[in-house]
């Protein structure tokens, strides 16, 4: 997403108190402010935020230092959460990043005087997110409505090829934000902007000196400062993959580096270098080479099996059934594949690198694939620090079969939803690589068959059979597979309303399918008025609200995967009634066939047949299609709201 497009920044006229951006210079005016002048509904606001990233030499090695200062105003009780500060960083047992909070305080106005509560030494703590990710946390004390909080932290990183990303926009308003980068001319970075608003930019070149190898080195340093005032809170939209993909940001991709010996190394889009780095690492490449811990088990499983497709299925299912994912992301093994195998639990790298090794042992061309999950956001350049997950790919001719054994309900070429995030990178041990598309084009289906009897009092009772395929089946299994029938029925009744369910049967014994059937009774979907009955053709499956409710769409729409819902209803009308009218048939399609809708009714004797098919043909579409999709959704809701009218004869 390089300079994708720029919207005209609308400057807000706002009279505010004089600003002093130095830490500990909180004013009474800031503490007395009752609401944000531009967004009175805001629970909190960033009064100012400053970041400064620069380079230094530590033990003759370059490191990147990022200093961040924040002053934040709390307006409501919901804003208290901003007193809990979290800073993520990349962790390695040797030579990883570090985070230090240098100052953190809460300010309140007490009897007309400013009272300061400082964070005590040792009040920070660290949480492990994955084998390679940590979060440093603090909880500021004495946060109240009206408080102003301040903090400063410093991130030290040895990873010159992983320049920190900087986000300007937050979920709350930002009065002023400034970010300065100081880059020695020994480094060349490609800048990546996502400017939905216009940033002010200032640049200058300075002469800088540092000491390395007991000698003084002098070089030119480029100083670039970005700033913006009165930035509104980021507002998410429906059907959005990850808000961080759309917030105003600046990122940097290392293109080349000239070391102290004048040797230049090129990095930009260098997946060969990434592959080599990973395969040379003991916690990645070495783990794929290990086979002794599983050899006997796999030999027993594939003995006499010559078909590669069968071998793949046997090994994949074995890993899924044996291993339990500990919910940890990361590209590296934490405790190693052997220990994970013995304990039957591990992180994503341990499970899927183990799978890769087993498939190779079985004679298949298997390789790891690194990707960035939806929660991690879109990765914009070739760096292992932008990616957080490992899966496996088996190459057959010019195609690849993608596998993720961390999800029990996944199958070959059907990854968990979290993995469906643009592209991943297949990395071979000869340092070659291949881009792999992750999003699926296969249509998942939900098919609902209903046979029902309508009574003269408006009660509808009958039998419902639902069949789910592919991703719809996976999602249904993930939610319902391990719960008892009574809770299953309670959940369905709660989601559909005005319905009683009995005799539920659930089947999920095929890989990419799930089925559920039950008897039902409904009292709220047919209205009796005098001699007339007004029946909702789709009963409790009728949609009533348009999920596309933004006036204007800025961001792409993420439907996750293509899907189709097909309803086939057969109603037996009560004796003594005849059909007065039925909704007319219709077929709708949005621009370029993004979505389709078919609605058709017919009758034969005392029966009414209803057919409704709604199809979303793409997993992701651009915002230019939003108006067409929104308009069509309105038309489909209007059609679903029409009634079958019966008259007593």
From TrEMBL:
Pfam families the UniProt entry points to: DUF3857, Transglut_core
All copies of domain DUF3857, residue ranges: 67-185
Residue ranges constituting the Transglutaminase-like domain according to the UniProt record: 302-375
Coiled coil, from the record: none
Domain of life from the UniProt record: Bacteria
SUPFAM superfamilies linked: Cysteine proteinases (SSF54001)
InterPro entries assigned: DUF3857 (IPR024618), Papain-like_cys_pep_sf (IPR038765), Transglutaminase-like (IPR002931)
Name of the protein: DUF3857 domain-containing protein
